[in-house]
Design brief:
- This protein is mostly helical.
- About 75% of the residues lie in helices and about 5% in strands.
- A two-stranded antiparallel ribbon has the order 1-2.
- Helix 3 crosses helix 11 (about 220-230) and helix 9 runs antiparallel to helix 12.
- The N and C termini lie far apart (about 80 Å).
């Protein structure tokens, strides 16, 4: 009996394939359903897509700005203990992400106490306020790599260029804004691309610190729920997966042009 049913299924598949090639039709019903459907079996990914954008954009801009400031200070501002601070930041890269999740979650939910003296209160954020927790977590996890990468680029800039700017009366703010940032654009683009892809595709941090609710959860959390509860509805899973892929693909292609342009501009001297 099982063989009869399997034979019938193969015959039905051949009929469907033949109908597609003889009468092809293009429809976006699956995307409409997975994004804006209201039934319990639909994806309802539109709100989760907005959550992913709200999480990703600040999680890229914050570490990019903080890492650029810190890298410039460690590369061009002479102060005592600068090398040890850089070594400490570099060493933080070996700390696994999973080891920091529980202490950071305790920091958000209970605050920090030292010998019974409260130093920071508990955040106790709910709903859309959990975005702040996700931004904070992604920024902390991205800073060691960002500072290391940008510091290596900034420290290789010509000393003569910096000295000439100081002779002309330029302050550190002017040097950073008008000289350093344009020259390290390839490093900024590289770090922004990797950070965007990391945050957009992240499931663990988003699930722990944003929760699984529609108010704050990213799209990866919703796709995991769809795969776990309705894995047989492949047409909606593939549509949701394509929606999840298309935005980082567009960002990568658009920013890669500036990245390659910066590499080519700095490859030839004179």
């Amino acid at each position: 009996m099982g063989a009869v049913y399997r034979g019938h299924d193969r015959h039905l598949d051949r009929r469907v394939a033949g109908a597609f090639f003889s009468e092809p039709a293009l429809t976006f019903d699956n995307y409409q359903e997975v994004l804006f459907g209201t039934s319990s079996s639909s994806g309802r990914l539109a709100s989760f897509l907005i959550n992913s954008i709200v999480i990703t954009v600040p999680s890229v801009l914050f570490p990019l700005a903080f890492a650029a400031f810190a890298a410039y200070a460690l590369a061009w501002l002479p102060f005592k203990g600068r090398d040890w601070i850089y070594i400490g930041i570099f060493a933080l890269q070996v700390v696994p992400l999973q080891m920091a999740l529980v202490p950071l979650l305790s920091f958000f939910s209970q605050g920090v106490e030292v010998f019974g003296v409260p130093l920071t209160p508990a955040w106790n954020l709910e709903g859309a306020g959990r975005f702040v927790q996700v931004w904070f977590a992604h920024t902390c996890f991205a800073l060691p790599l960002g500072v290391f990468l940008l510091h290596n680029f900034m420290s290789e800039l010509p000393h003569e260029l910096m000295e000439a700017a100081r002779v002309d009366g330029a302050t550190h703010g002017t040097i950073f804004r008008r000289i350093v940032l344009p020259l390290v654009a390839p490093a900024l683009a590289t770090f922004a691309i990797f950070q965007f892809l990391w945050v957009w595709n992240d499931l663990l941090v988003g699930l722990i610190f944003a929760g699984g609710t529609e108010e704050s959860a990213p799209m990866t959390v919703r796709l995991a729920q769809m795969a776990g509860t309705r894995g047989n509805e492949w047409q909606r899973l593939t549509a949701g997966a394509f929606v999840s892929v298309i935005i980082p693909l567009v960002v990568f292609v658009s920013m890669q042009r500036y990245f390659v342009r910066g590499l080519l501009a700095g490859s030839v001297k004179g």
